Amino acid sequence: MGILTLYCADATIGKFEKSSLSQQTLMELLISKLTANAETICDSPDYPIEITSWNGLRLNKENEVLRIVWNSFYVSGSMPLEYLPLTVEAVSMPCNYLSGTIDLTQLPDTLQRLDLQGNRLEGTIDLTCLPVSLSELTVSQNKLVGTVDLIQLPPNMSELDLSENDFEGVTDFTKLPDSLKVIHVTKTKLSGEVDDFSGSHFWC
């Protein structure tokens, strides 16, 4: 029983626990599962330098992370997004070799944009617990599978790109938020009726 309790406690990290960790610690945890080219981010993954000197980060005056831009850094391994600092507003990691599954249910409430295009991500994704502030989500050109639930998207979402994945099944496209202007589902096996989508672009 004790082992099971410990495992469950360590399986995820809640927002309360995250708030007690430093930005440096959270960022080190974020890259802790990279297996190649982590040095392009922090010089040495075994002895990371201060995040004020990391590549691709934008910090505020309090040295809190606002943006992460790791485009084409060619890093390999997994990226546990649950460790994103609570201050992050935008994450851009396209054209890398990120693999494994992704948890989109514990993203920071402040997050507005997330781009994971062109990686090797696998498994299913949960779109029912995205941050209210999220306006753009791109997970195209990965190896994601399963069905997708689009009836609980954030009310301010303007662009959603699910294209070039192995998603399949009947999908409810009739309850998309009014704010959604562009949705890409090309090269997937998703199907379903589309409600009135006038003024927006639906690519299938």
Automatic annotation (TrEMBL):
<dbReference type="InterPro" id="IPR001611">
    <property type="entry name" value="Leu-rich_rpt"/>
</dbReference>
<dbReference type="Pfam" id="PF00560">
    <property type="entry name" value="LRR_1"/>
</dbReference>
<dbReference type="InterPro" id="IPR032675">
    <property type="entry name" value="LRR_dom_sf"/>
</dbReference>
<protein>
    <recommendedName>
        <fullName>Leucine-rich repeat protein</fullName>
    </recommendedName>
</protein>
<dbReference type="InterPro" id="IPR046959">
    <property type="entry name" value="PRK1-6/SRF4-like"/>
</dbReference>
